[in-house]
Amino acid sequence: MKEIVRQLLPFIKRFKRHVYLNVFFNILYALFSALAFVSLIPMMNVLFSKTKVVTKAPVWTGIAEIKTYGEQFLNYKVSGYLENGNAQMALLIVVSLVIFTFLLKNLFGYFAMQHMMYLKNGVLNSLRKDMYDKIIKLPLSFYSKRQKGDVMARVLGDINEMQNSFFIVLELIVREPATIIFSLIIMFSFSWKLTLFVLLFIPVSGFLISRIGKSLKSNSLKAQQESGRLISIVEESLTGLKIIKSYNAENTFRNHFINSADRILKLSNKIGLKNNLAGPVSEVLGIATIAVLLWYGGQLVLIDNVIAGTDFLAFMGLAYGILTPAKAISKASYRVKNGIAAADRVFEILHEKDNMEDIPNAKILDGFTKELSINNISFKYDNDLVLKNFSITVPKGKTVALVGQSGSGKSTIANLVTRFYDINEGSILIDGNDIKNVTKKSLRSLMGLVTQDSILFNDTIKNNILIGQPNATDDQIIDALKIANAWEFVKDLPQGMETNVGDAGNNFSGGQKQRISIARAVLKNPPIMILDEATSALDTESERLVQVALENMMKNRTSIVIAHRLSTIQSADQIIVMQNGRIVEQGTHVELIKKDGMYKRLVEMQSFE
Which residues form a coiled coil (predicted)? Predict the structure, then answer.
C-alpha cells in the first residue's frame, strides 16, 4: 500500500491545489458532522422542558471558553422566550440551529467531493496518458512475448478498477478519520466512561474485517490477468474472423472464451463473497455496540444520573456517527485490495525499462548522402541466431533486393535497419554513423516502410496518408496518390479522400489498401525506402498495379526490397540470396541466372518468400 501511494505521489502533486482544498473542506465537514448531533440537544431540551434557565447575558471571556459561552448564550435567548410564553420563537431558534448546522455540513461535504472528483479524474487521466506514451515508446521486443489483450486490459480495465476501488481511500483518508476524531472529542466531553466503552468495539471490528479480506488481493490479481486473456481472445477472434469461419472453428474459439469467462466468474464470485461480508460484519458489530451502549448508558441516565437524557440521545447519535465512517473505512479496505492489484499491473508497465533508449547526446541525422552499410551483424530473437556475420552495403540511389526462403532472415533486416530491434554483434551505419548513436526519430525520418500487411487505421484516406507528413496540402496528397497509382479509384469515391477506410482498411481490397500505404510512404518522401514483401499478398492484377506504384516511388531513391516475387526485384542493382541467416549468392538478376545456383532454382519455382 505504501509503495503504491509513493508511486502515485508524482501524479497527485500535479493537482495539489485540489488536495489542499479537499482536506480543508473535509475537516469542516467532519467538524459539522459532529456538531450536527450536538445541535439536536437544545431542540430536545425545549421539547422535553429541560432547557436551563439563564437570566443574565453571558460575558465573552476568550476562545478557550467558547463552548460554555455558546451554551449559555443559546439558553439565555431560548429561556427568555419560554419565560415570556413565546415557545414558538424558542422552537424556531433551536430548529434553525439544527438546519443551519446540517446545511453547512452538507455544503462542505459537497465542496470536498467536488475537489476530490477533480483530483481523482485528473490523476487517472494523467495515468492513462503516461501509460499510452509508455506503450508506444517501448520497443517491439517488449510486445513479442505479451498478449495485446493483457496490455489493453491494463490501460482500460485496471485503471478503471483503480478509480472504482483504490481511489476510495483518497476520499476517506481525511473525512472519515476527522469525523471520528471530532465525534470522540465531543463524546469525551459528555462521558469518558461511555466513550471508552464504544472504543472497545472498533479494534475488534477492524481485526475481523482484515482477517476476511486478507486473500482479496491475490484473487483480484488473478481476475485481472484472466481479464487480459479474455480481451486477447476477443481481439484475436475479431482479427481472424475469416479464418475462424472458413475452418468452422467457431466452437473451438467459443470454448476458449467460455473457459476464460468461467474462470473470471469463479474468481469474481470469490472476491464478491468476501466483499459482501464487509457490510453484514460491520453492521452486526455496530448493532452489538449500540445495544450494549443502550444498556450501559441507560443505567447512567436512569440509575446513576451521571448524564442527562437529552445529552445521552445526542451521544448515541455521535456513537452512530463514529460507526458509520468506521464501516465505510472497513468496506473500503476490501475494495482497496482490488485497487492495489490493479495499480501493481499499471505501474509494472509504467516502470518497464526501455532497453533501446537514445544514448545521451545522440546525434540527429539531417540527411542521407552516401551509403547504408551493414557490417558483420549477428542477431537472435530468442536463443537461435537468425542472422550470422551478415554484411551488405547499399549505396545512395541504388536498389538492393533480399531474397530467400521463408525463415532466412530477410524481414529481420528491415527490423534491424529501422532499429525496431538492436543487433547482438556488428554494426549498422548510415553515412558512417552507427544507428545506435543517433536518435531513433531522426533515423526513422530518413526511412519509408511498406509492409506485406497493409496497415491502415480506422480514419479517412487523407488522414491515413498524412501520418508521415501532417502538414501536407491536398495537392501534395493527390500527387502522392497518383504516384502510388491510387488516385484512379480514390477520385471516383463519393467522398474522395475523405472516405473512411473502415476497421483495418476493410472497406477496400488488398491492392487498394497497399496503394494507399504506398501513397503514405511517397508523401513522407524519405531518402531510403524499405519494401517488406509489399506485393506477396496480392493477386496478379493488384500486383501489377502496385508494382507500377512501387517503381514510381523507387525512382531516384535508395531502396531495400525484401522480395517474394520475381517482378519486384528483376531490375534491382544487386540481389542478395539468403539462406539460414547467411548470404549464399549475390549479383544482378542476369549474373545470378548465369550462375545456375539457388537463385535460379527460386526463380524457376516462383517461390520468393
Answer: none
